[in-house]
Amino acid sequence: MSPRFHVCLPLLLVSLAVGCDLKVKPRATAKAVPAAPAVAGPPAVTEHEAMSFGLQLEAAVAEKDRAAFDPLFSVDGLLKKPVSDRPLPDVPPHGKPMLAELIAAVFLEVQDKAGSYKLVRVTVEGGRPHVLFRMVGARDQLAYHDVTLTKSAAGAVLVDDVAFLGSGETLSRSVRRLVEKLDAKVPRKYVGLDELHRAHAADIVAYQEESVPRKPEQALALFHRLPDELRKDKSLHIPAIALAFLVNDTVLAKEMDAYHKNHPNDPGADLMALNMFFAAGQFNRGLKAADDLKAALGDPYLEYWRAEALGQSERYPEAKAALDAAIRAEPTLRPAYLTRLAVAVEEKDHAETAKLVKAIATRFETTWTVASMPTDPRFVHFVQSKEYEGLKAWAAARARK
Predict the structure, then answer these.
(1) H/E element, 101
(2) Considering only CA atoms, which of 210, 233, 205 is closest in space to residue 221?
(3) How many CB atoms lie within 10 A of CB 361?
(4) 142-170 pLDDT, tens per residue?
(5) Distance (Å, rounded) from C-alpha 150 to C-alpha 144?
(6) Phi, psi for 124 (deg, rounded to 5)
(7) For the chain: N or C, fewer Cβ within 10 A?
């Protein structure tokens, strides 16, 4: 496995420079205003409903089924979801279909690249379910989506928002920025963090542009000229961690410490570190990053990453234990089976090799078959064993069924 640096939200959405807020003026009156009667919102999404929704979204992405995918997202809801108090921009007639296509691309393009999208777990935080998904790209780039849910007036469960853990961005924030780009002629007044984004737009763009040609020292210098509140913005700080990695370990440790101080329970920096260390072949450091991320997210897929790091260090017994743990926790985790098979072949454990080939053949499609194994150099020793003869008999009997 050779994962590469990965940004988990396509640039079509996240590269839009700034968001914006409108300050709502208080009423110019000293008279007491009777409180408006409370309006009941939609009923809360239950944990069971969240799990059912998660399975639906996973299946829709796996099948690239737009008919199943589109009803799970409300473009209107994402447009109306406030980043702060401000009126909804006017959306051009072509805007909503375009946004729907971009949202679908974020999720469905992974299937075009031989990747996967998997429901990991449902947790409840503050009485509200969070659905965590794992996205794996074609080159094993790893990303996670933390999805929160809402209900329509008719009671349908819909995406309320998506937090992209590897970029520090949210889907609603990206959508709002894009819509405001389309509606740039409307005068606006900005407040809070969005006011800082707007006021320092040129500085942010300079920082981002300096990052592209791989000038890490210069880009980091521009990042540290930003106001403190902007440097705490996850969507700006996570790229700075990637830049720090290119400078030296001292600078990286400083940025990681700052991120964890500002966002103590957020795994975004650990996810960035995992991808970076594995891409650079720094497997001991990658192992620690996988351990940290597994503790935060509880995803069995991270046992597979641990096994990759352990295997690269020739710690085969520990690698096998990690792979077996991953397979037990997620029996459909194809990469874990294939890596476990590679370890068995390397150790010339012919009985285990035959067992794993059977398991893989019954669960997954492969580029090789039992009959083609003699021409595959990876199996040069196995095909001379009695276990291979038994495996051929098993495959022949299975083919006759």
Answers:
(1) helix 95-112
(2) 210
(3) 17
(4) 999 999 999 988 899 999 999 999 888 88
(5) 20
(6) -115, 120
(7) C
